[in-house]
Specification:
By secondary structure, the protein is α+β, with helices and mostly antiparallel strands. The protein folds into four domains: 165 residues, 2-Layer Sandwich (Methyltransferase, Cobalt-precorrin-4 Transmethylase, Domain 2), CATH 3.30.950; 65 residues, no CATH class; 179 residues, Heat Shock Protein 90; 78 residues, Winged helix-like DNA-binding domain superfamily/Winged helix DNA-binding domain (Arc Repressor Mutant, subunit A), CATH 1.10.10. Helix content is 34%, strand content 20%. It contains 18 helices and 20 strands. The strands form seven sheets. A six-stranded mixed β-sheet has the order 12-11-15-16-18-17, covered by helices on one side. Strands 3-4-6-5 form a four-stranded mixed β-sheet. A hairpin with a 2-residue loop joins β1 and β2. The radius of gyration is 32 Å and the shape is flat.
């Protein structure tokens, strides 16, 4: 039996022709961490590189503080994760047979002292290394739905193939989104009603009474019912929800309650001396005020473009549909984590895209793949109040409206992505397809040559024709500067346009006369 195994051995691993690691119907990329843990074998190692679901650890040196960090990390990551002891980062199988029994016991009891909220499960997977039997220790660490910290009060979470140490603000936000604590229901150090815009409160209460048929309710009864105010005896205590909705100075207690809008000339914001936004404004106040002021500023900062629609007609519109960026702005303000006190909601407008960045990650089970189908809210009561004021619908309509309005403008589908930058953020990217629309924006030029002729022209030809149309003539050196092509190539471009009947050559009085030039040959028929 041993001889047979030796013959089938390849690079130290057992390989039997009838023992494939997956069945025909298997798709390992879709396996959950639990699936991996239950079905894991030695032959599967090359198919599972380290990712959000699995991490390999060498058995040469076991560090229990590191194990505690991974227990916290996968316990805080939706779907959990698998830790595999006995495999190097490059996939080399090392095994765990050489480990002292005290170390083996320590791996299985580490969580009791160093991460007590985690609920790991352990098993040993047999492997063959150099013809000798060995084993791996496979640890399945399930997601527990509440913040799991180590005995050092550290909390970790998994992003991609790395673990990320949470800041205090991230931990607070994590607890809030898992209903452990709620930032919006904390009492605020504000006086009611002196520190609030009574007009906003009145609008909200009127809308609530009208929709819910509570015409006999007072404003205070409405605010208490909607979790905006608490009453103890005869005293009213405003909550953070009311501060966000109608506070005169929310920034005093919630520094992140503001939006920054920037417009840049090119596709990048630059750095150092090259960092020069064309427009740059901060908007503060209640969220209602912020949305009103920021939306007016954004609308003014966007350019109008003329483009050819699917019907072959020219239309003039803003760079982006209003509903797309307005919904993204509202979502960013309503769904952001206000526990990230020093981080602003930011909107950056570049020549080719708009980025709306909201502090805080997706709220499970929502992620970038389920954004149109599932709903979850971080600030439920605040979102509910904004619904009565007509800003949100609370039924996934916001993200769908962004997508659908972009489609109506023949623009790419919006991108939703969570990133770990200065803390965790969700970024919505709207692309304006500016290259194609720059081509389309020369409406007067296209109408002169005829739309059909214009659609067949190459980009550098469009530039030459537009320049000639507006300046009445063009020389080779001007075409060269305009297109960035060589002098000889530009000469050929002009001659080609002459052959197409778009330009005509006007010679000078003698050879190489600098007055020689090209001009338009004809107008559209």
């Amino acid at each position: 039996m041993v001889d047979t195994l030796d013959v089938a051995m390849n690079d130290g691993q057992l390989s039997l022709p009838f023992d494939e690691p997956f069945s025909v119907s298997d798709e390992p990329g879709l396996w959950t961490p639990r699936d991996i843990w239950v079905r894991f074998t030695q032959r599967m190692i090359p198919y599972f590189a380290e990712d959000r679901r699995i991490d390999y650890k060498s058995s040469k040196r076991i560090q229990f503080d590191d194990l505690a960090a991974y227990l916290s990390c996968f316990s805080n990551t939706p779907d959990g994760g698998v830790l595999c002891y006995g495999v190097a980062d490059d996939g080399t199988v090392l095994g765990c047979k050489s480990l002292d029994q005290r170390i083996l016991n320590g791996i299985e009891t580490c969580h009791l002292q160093k991460c007590p909220l985690s609920k790991p499960e352990f098993k040993r997977v047999p492997v063959v290394i150099g013809g000798e039997e060995d084993f791996l220790i496979i640890v399945y660490i399930p997601y527990i739905g509440k913040l799991a910290e180590t005995n050092k009060s550290e909390a970790w979470i998994r992003y991609g193939d790395t673990k990320h140490k949470m800041s205090e603000e991230e931990k607070r936000d994590f607890r809030a989104t898992r209903n452990e604590v709620s930032f919006e229901l904390e009492r605020a150090a504000y006086r009611y009603p002196q520190d609030f815009h009574l007009s906003i409160i009145q609008d909200f209460c009127d809308e609530f009474r009208s929709r819910e048929q509570r015409s006999n309710w007072t404003n205070e009864e409405t605010l208490i019912d909607r979790h905006l105010v608490e009453k103890v005896g005869e005293q009213y205590f405003p909550l953070n929800t009311l501060v966000l909705l109608a506070g005169k100075d929310p920034g005093r207690a919630i520094p992140g309650c503001r939006v920054r809008v920037q417009r840049f000339e090119g596709e990048n914001e630059g750095s150092g001396e090259s960092y020069r936004p064309i427009r740059d404004r901060f908007f503060e106040g209640s969220v209602v005020e912020i949305i009103q002021k920021a939306s007016a500023f954004i609308g003014d900062a966007l350019h109008n473009v003329t483009w050819l629609n699917a019907d072959g007609k020219f239309v003039t519109t803003p760079e982006y549909p209003r509903w797309a960026w307005f919904e993204a702005l509202v979502n960013a303000c309503v769904h952001r984590s206000y526990s990230f006190s020093g981080t602003d909601t930011t909107i950056k407008i570049f020549s080719n895209r708009m980025e709306i960045e909201s502090p805080g990650g997706f709220v499970p089970p929502v992620n970038e793949n389920t954004i149109y189908d599932l709903r979850a809210s971080r600030n439920h009561h605040f979102m509910d109040a904004m619904r009565y004021l007509g800003y949100v619908q609370m039924a996934r309509e916001g993200t769908r409206r962004i997508r659908d309005s972009m489609a109506e403008y023949n623009l790419p589908e919006p991108q939703f992505k969570q990133e770990a930058l200065h803390g965790v953020v969700v970024r919505v990217t709207l692309q304006n397809d500016h290259e194609k629309r720059n081509r389309s924006s020369d409406r007067d030029v296209a109408m002169h040559f005829g739309v059909e002729q214009w659609k067949l022209m190459q980009e550098h030809e469009i530039k030459i024709a537009a320049y000639t149309y507006r300046n009445e003539k063009i020389q080779v050196s001007e075409a060269q500067r305009l297109t960035g092509r060589t002098w000889a190539t530009s000469k050929k471009d002009l001659e080609r346009l002459c052959r197409k009947g778009i330009l005509t050559f006007v010679p000078g009085d003698y050879a190489r006369d600098p007055k020689a030039h090209y001009k338009l040959a004809r107008a559209s028929s």
